[in-house]
Amino acid sequence: MSKFTTLSEEYRQSIEAELEGSLELLGDSPLRRDIGYVFSMGGKRVRPLLTIFASEAVGAFSQDVMQAAVAIEILHNFTLVHDDIMDKADTRRGKATVHITSGTNTAILVGDQMMALAYDALEKCSGRHLRAGLRIFNEGVKQVCDGQALDENLSKSVGYTMTDYIDMISRKTGALLMAAGELGALLGGGTTQEIGSLGKFGLNIGIAFQILDDMLDLEGDMERFGKPRGLDIMEKKRNFLFIKAQQSMDRKSFAVVDAAYRKNSVSADDVVAVHDAYRNAGIFEDGKKEVADYTERALANLEALTASAGKEMLVELADTLVKRRF
Amino acid sequence: MSKFTTLSEEYRQSIEAELEGSLELLGDSPLRRDIGYVFSMGGKRVRPLLTIFASEAVGAFSQDVMQAAVAIEILHNFTLVHDDIMDKADTRRGKATVHITSGTNTAILVGDQMMALAYDALEKCSGRHLRAGLRIFNEGVKQVCDGQALDENLSKSVGYTMTDYIDMISRKTGALLMAAGELGALLGGGTTQEIGSLGKFGLNIGIAFQILDDMLDLEGDMERFGKPRGLDIMEKKRNFLFIKAQQSMDRKSFAVVDAAYRKNSVSADDVVAVHDAYRNAGIFEDGKKEVADYTERALANLEALTASAGKEMLVELADTLVKRRF
Question: What's the predicted TM-score (pTM) here?
Fold first, then answer.
């Protein structure tokens, strides 16, 4: 195993333990069991790893860094619970979502409570960085909500551009990874410039990650990703593939995609037809190029940092994210 | 006009202006218009007034106090937006609720964004009280979510007691008024004991307020309260009236109430029948006694404070809340 695999697995275990431990902050909350369930659904824990490695890239890891890392992961999980309600997603990572196990009302409250829990975890960071940390956190949350709202609106609106799409995913997916990088750099003792660079690293990684995610909606391994194929098409989301197709496909080829997006109910056959159309037009190659491009930008954001184990880990983290199997 | 009326009206105008101003913190958020709409729905602004008067009762009002007061009011409004989704309430204060005007998904996001905005407003408080303020805030949010969750569960469960009910409303309604009192006392420069007393004042006022609210569900002026009469019965909520009735009514008289709560769909006639049963059994008198009792406890929490204009205003505030017309 590589040093990255060993180290990130070690940290991941600590993160799981800290997440579990954070439930103590909920006392006798009737929502505790559901929140524990959300944590048990797992995940790659990319955001807290980013916070931890960012701290190591500019200075040192500490219990405060771990606290902020956990806060960011809780926040991310809150957004998933509410997103799953909005997207009517019945499963995540192959497990039933909270609104399925406990009802929509409880799922709304679980999300709300998790947001409070995230702030509570953040408050446990000792020292003088509380205000700056809180600012980063607030900005992250606001952007995520905005991004999700833009996604809601955009997924229904015609005639929006790749620029709008990139803006939307910068908020929806990029903002929390940006906050994760910034918080790690802040609590690791980084300079203002380093905090900025590691924030941008997170943002660019986030954009790459989301474009890849849009592609995996059609080309992903269903068992591995635990959700049905072509969900974006069924929900008529104007995702990266759709916009790219709209931009670059000739009118006749695009007609297949357009027809599916105009239907009231999209069938499995429609999904296959759209998938074929994208494949024939080379949309996935375009997507891969775009992912590589944003990953390059992310790596460029690290250039100014002096060489360190933390920096190496960040490069590996970026690499792992982009290498998600098709 | 009394000094209280004049002063609270002045402060209320400042609060409205600050709420409006807080929208600036949202930048170009696609949710800004909806959040502005929530603010424009109005309200008595009891919580921020409590924060302000609490600060004056232990020391001095300041811009920081106003900031915290506004943060608490935003937080309260976030809970209303999500509660209205859960309760399927179409109107509030005679106006369409956000999930009606903009859809449930947007309403979820509006609430989420308002929670972030509340924390953002709180962070704008300068000075050394940020961590303590954040703790009070976090505890308030967690308790409110717990209270709402208990309400969700309890409203369906049989065999729960008045103690469970008081615990539920202490969290659902009391916790934010408690936080409002504590924050005012903290930022006004109060001692630990004063912060505790003003928190308890808020908590007890909150309990009185909620019991009164349960009564107004049946005896309130529909036009003034902007919601249909008997909503709690239609939703089969085991509110104060129900539990008191269950405790104190004889079996035969309670059968009317019980029958309505067992129906799949409660009619307007059922509401009238339950209302009459409560009235004949003197449940509203019991309720009024309970409200008076918790108001007394609240006023007792102020006893240790030295006389001041702020203290007088708090007494008047308690009085106004309890005097809500039937």
Answer: 0.94
